[in-house]
Each structure stands twice: as C-alpha cells, then as structure tokens.
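Example record for the data management plan.
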Amino acid sequence: MTPPMIYGLTGIALFCLSLYALIVEKHLLRKILAINLMGSGVFLVLTALARHHTPVPDPVPHAMVITGIVVEMISNVPWAVMLILLPLTGGMGAFLWPRRSVPIGLTAVFGAAAAAAGLAYVVAQRGAYHHPVGGWGAPLGIDLYADALSLAMLIMTALVALGISVYSTRYFDEENAGRFWPLWLLTLAGLNALFLSADVFNFYVTLELIGLGAVALTALAGRADALVGATRYLLAALLGSMTYLLGVAFLYHGFGGVDLFLLAKHTEPSPFAWAALGLIGTGLMLKTALFPLHFWLPSAHSSAAAPVSALLSALVIKAAFYILFRIGLVVFGGFELETVLVLISVLGAAAVLWGSVAALLQRRLKLMIAYSTIAQVGYLFLALGFALGHHAAAFQATVYLALSHAFAKSAMFLVAGNLIRFDGHDSIKELKQIVLHLPVSATAFALAGVSIIGLPPSGGFVGKWLLLEAALAQGQWAVAVVVIAGSLLAAAYVFKVLGFTFTRTPIAQAPRRLPPAMEWSALFLAFAALLMGLIPSALPAFIETAAPFYGPGALP
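Corresponding structural encoding:
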C-alpha cells in the first residue's frame, strides 16, 4: 500500500469518526476537539491527492495545489442555500428525534455558522453574491442575494445563535429541549432566509416563519404571563404582517413586480407608491415595536424563557427593521421623504426617552431589559432617518447600533436567566451581592451595559458617535441632545443593577453553581459587543461595500 493511500484512508477514517463524535458527544470541549480532528482528516486527504498527482514531492507546489483546491471548493459551495437548509433540516431532525435534539441542534447551528463564514469569504473575494434558486432567477423565480449589509446581519445572527444554543444546552430539561430546538431552528432558518432575500414578497413569507416560531417559543415557558405575552405578540405579529402584505400588493399592482432591483428601477412617486410606503412602514414599525406601537413587547420579552427573550430582542426585532431599512433605501431611496424622515426621527426620539425612563423605573431585571430594548429601537430609527437621506455616517451608525445591540441585549437576557436560575427571581433590589457568587455573569452584564450606554471602546459607542456625527452635520442639535440624554438614562439603569449586585444582605445565602456553559455564553456575547469597538477601521470599510446596493444608478 502506497503512502498516499495510507494518508487518504487515515484521513477518511479520522473525518468519519470525528463527525460521529461531533453528533453524539454532549460536552462542548469534546465537540471542539472533534471539529479540529475533522480538519486534520481533510488535510490528510488533500495531502494524499497532491502526492498521488506529483511523483516528486515539493512542498511549495503542494501547498499551492492544496490552497487552490480549497479556495475553489469554498467559492463553489452554495453557502446561501446551506444557511437555510442546515437549520431547517436540523429542526426537522430535532422534531423527529427529540431525545437527540441537542446534538442535532448544535450541529445545525455550528454548520450554519460555518456557512456564514464561507459566504463571507465569497463576498469578500467576488463582491455581491447572487444565487437563482432552482436556476430560475427574478422575476419568474427567486434570487438569494448577499452583500456586505446582509452579510453583517447573517454573521450577527450566527454569533448570537451560537451563544444562545450553547446556553440552551444547559438551560432546558430534556422535555422542554425537545420542544425548544425544532422551533428555534425553524426560526433560525427563517432569519437566514430573510437576510438573503431580495424580494418583498419573500420578506413576507420569511417574516411569517419567524413570527410563528417566535410566538411558539414565547409560550414555551408555559406560565400564565408567558401565554398572555405570546397572545399579544401573535396579534401584533399578524396585524403587522397583514399591513405589510397589503403594502406589497399596492407595489405589485402599481409597478408589476416584487423583486427589489426591478422595483427600484420602476417605482415612481404616485398614490400607489405612497400608500405602499405607509402600509409597509406601519406594519414593520409594529413588528419592530417602535413607540407607540410597542404595547406587546414588554410582556412577551419579560415572560419568555431567557434564551427566547435573548433571540426575540437580538434577532427577531432586527429582521423587521432590516426589511424596512432595505426597502426604504432601495425602493424609495429616490423619493422626497422629508416629512417621513421627520416623523421617523420624532418617533425614534420619543422611543429613546420613554423607553429609557420606563426601564429606570422597573423593579424586575427582565422587564428593565425589555423596556431598554424599546429605547434601543429608538436609536435605530434615529439613525434610519439620516440613512434614508443617504448620509454615509448614518448608514454605518445603523449597522453598528443593530449589531452591538444584538450582542449586548442577548448577553443581558442570558445573565437575567442565570440570576433567576441561581436565586429563583429577578428582583433588582434582591440581587444580594451576586457578584461574589456569579462573577462571570456580573462581568458579562457590566460589559453589555458598557455597549448599551455607549461608552468606549464598545460597538455601542462607535454607533452613537457616528449618529452624533450625522446629526451635527445636518444641524440637528435636538437629535444630539436625545442621544446624549438616552445614554445618561441608560447609565442610570445599568449602574442601578450593578449597584445592587454588590449589596450586602443579612440573609446567609448558600452558594450554588451554574453550568459553565450558561455563564460563558453570556460573556462571549458581551465580549462581541465590546470587540466591535476595537476594530473601528475594518468594519466600516466592509460595510461601505454595501453602499452601491442603494446608491443612484447602482443596480446591476
């Protein structure tokens, strides 16, 4: 037996055993080891192929051949399709085999994260990614599209999904895990499909998938308050979806298409266009919980299980906002929107101030975080108001604020889940020197709070700095005052919580241990929010590559 055959057989055996271990093992470190061994197996197979085709070994040509093979393989893989199919297939598998839902779910989530990384490589090398599903592109078929903006949302989703998934392996018991994973993976598939869509009707379909999964996940806690919150959420989601769909019908009737690129070429100011803008905007504002359409959010987010609250605040709300962002920039980017922009800015400012004050007045931690989400949505709409005016700094601010909020708020909700698991409640005044018992969780909350407040060097700081730059460039001093006031109020409610974590209590408390996965998952997401501010030069340059998507004359 020749050495190449030995290398190849060894690599195949190592890959297969590692794949089996990745699926079966429950310990996170063993799964990471299995992934590393899979990479070693692939390397051995590629080495065997190179040695088989080259009689005289030379390391430099071999390295070039292997690199070329790997690059070509990465470039030709349909990563966008895998981003949708992996969690969708995983959800079906978790539903059929509930006892194996955890390894199946983790495999699907890690696979989707790898697919997001592969798609990022392709977009970085080749620019915007187009994939006609089934070989039929728009207008007859469906196109999957990815540029820097959608890719940023996909990477955000992948990272938050990793943190939530690892956390959930220790949060749910076996019975609830069998219910959680199918719904969570269905929601994840819908999120990825939405961020890859370039069609206003596909936005509706994926938004419905996400909404149905999110409502069911909210009710998963089974308590009366969770059922009430899920019912309110369902009614708001259906009303928002129907309003949005009616707006899509106006666009289709008036301009004969649903593809974003085609609509951008043919949509002109007319009664149909303005009616569509009003209906689509109202429906998506309701699903984003913009003040005063936020009535459903506090009860839904505060009553759900901690991982569900994290994904609702970090991902589900961003899906509706992303649609509004895309349609506003692409389809209505050439309209005169002064009145609309003023309305968006006023509602955003009201959301920042009202949500921050309401968060400061709360006595329960999860309710405080939920009302804080309303305030952070206000920042997104303040930035959107300037971005629709094609202000470059505001465009970057919108992306920074969306990503940093997703990481920070998901970390906060996971920390709240840790405190409830540790002490049985989330009363802020009864935190009882938690910092001594759960130092990792306390650190995660503090780091997430740094980004929510907007302190350097966090991603929240960069986003608010860019928003202030856009506001001052337009002479909008009132917006600048609102941004600063919101940050001061955020500091008040974040430090209020941190202050009680150091409070002494006369009641002796028996120390309890939480699973490390629950604490470190929260810290991972909090560090992600912080690290966004430490790479301020790379991320804006990457985001700017999405600018041609909405610029005048930029359509392919």
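Summary line stored alongside the record: Residues 53-72, 548-556 have pLDDT under 50 and may be disordered.
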